[in-house]
Amino acid sequence: MARNDSTPRNLAILLFDEVEVLDFAGPFEVFAVSRDYQDGETPLFNVYTVASAARPIIARNGLSVNPAHTLADCPAPDILLVPGGRGARTAMHDAALVDWIAAQAGTAELTLSVCTGAFILAKAGLLGGLSATTYHTAFDDLAQIAPDTTLHRDKRFVDNGRIVTSAGISAGIDMSLYVVARLHGIEQARWTARHMEYHWDENLTG
Q1: Is 115 a catalytic residue?
Q2: Average pLDDT, stretch 98-104?
Q3: What is this structure's pTM?
Q4: Which CATH code for domain 9-196?
Q5: Which of 15, 25, 71, 115 is catalytic?
């Protein structure tokens, strides 16, 4: 997708019922608070949530979240993030949702997944011939969904270029900081981690 480098990247985070809270909230925090470290003010990402319907999403453990957009009115994302959680096992069978993800990934600069969000990427045909990771108890299931994907059980996240997957829950924060570093440099990612008071291991690589 063509973009002006002086403007924040659009970053859409998918929501669905029974989504794991930290899967989406951790990356949301990373990207939403990431400001140009040289002035501490200029946002680097325009972060928003999207869901299939205009209604509250009930995340894991009963958290109610109001998505900002539906699939029909979502601004075209430069980056699409697909979280996981128990609800991913249902969402991956939603044909309209999976088709939308495949279409967005075709034009987005990056498509990211956290945890079992990799299941949804696989269903969208985005992991074929690539490498991936997922939640530590979900590898056997992902292997059945994506038999031609190389799975890395020992990695916090895996970078294939336009597709980046992470392990579960808190691993999405590490992946997101890695993406900030990849797009804006290591000093920017360090600034963001310090702002969050997050003890980030910047030596993790994808």
Answers
A1: yes
A2: 98
A3: 0.95
A4: 3.40.50.880
A5: 115
